[in-house]
Amino acid sequence: MEFPHKMTDDRFYDEVKLKIIPRHKESCASGDEWRTSCQIQLFSKGTCVYENYSGTIKDALIKTLSVLNELLISNTDHENKCFQYGCSNDATVKYQINERFSRMGEKLDKEEYSQSRYYRKFCDDHSIRGDCSREDSDDNYTKTT
């Protein structure tokens, strides 16, 4: 089987927008007045993946923080987008990962994942990976498309 393998620094969202929205409230009982609400949006690869409205920026941020774990678990898959964190370009090249490493850089035992193939996709701008990382390096990828 073949599985996509996210980059270790992928944080699910790569853009946050906060916007104050003014509105005029009219009421015979309590009078007319201007009020504001706050809209917060989280984007991943150019797609809005979360939106919330609250009375204040503080409340919007608190609500957003309380659902971040759920958002990470229900991560929207961007199959045809570049795997480079922060990039929303379409992927143009696909690489099979030859060897897997832990976050600490230790090589993982191939027996643990020998039945599966892991891949990453990148756009033309990010197709050259360099040699700084052990897992995310040109030497550790085999181009498949």
Q: How helix-rich are the residues, as a percent range?
A: 10-25%
Largest sheet properties: 4 strands, mixed
Tally of DSSP β-strands: 7
Order of helices and strands: EEEEHEEE
Tell me the strand percentage band: 25-35%
Taking pLDDT < 50 over at least 5 consecutive residues as the criterion, the unreliable ranges are none
- Roughly how many Å apart are the termini? 17 Å
Strand order of the largest sheet: 1-6-5-7
Question: What is the overall shape?
Answer: elongated
Write a structural description.
By secondary structure, this protein is mainly beta. The protein has a domain at 15-73. It has one helix and seven strands. It has a four-stranded mixed sheet, with no helix packed on it. The protein has a three-stranded antiparallel sheet with strand order 2-3-4, with helices on one face. A hairpin with a 7-residue loop joins strand 2 (15-25) and strand 3. It is elongated. 12% of the residues are buried.
What is this entry, summarized?
It is built from one helix and seven strands; from the N terminus they run E-E-E-E-H-E-E-E.
Q: Which structural traits does this protein have?
A:
single chain, 145 residues, mainly beta, 4-stranded mixed beta sheet, elongated
List the SSEs and their pairings:
Elements: E1 2-4, E2 15-25, E3 33-44, E4 47-54, H1 57-73, E5 93-97, E6 117-122, E7 141-143
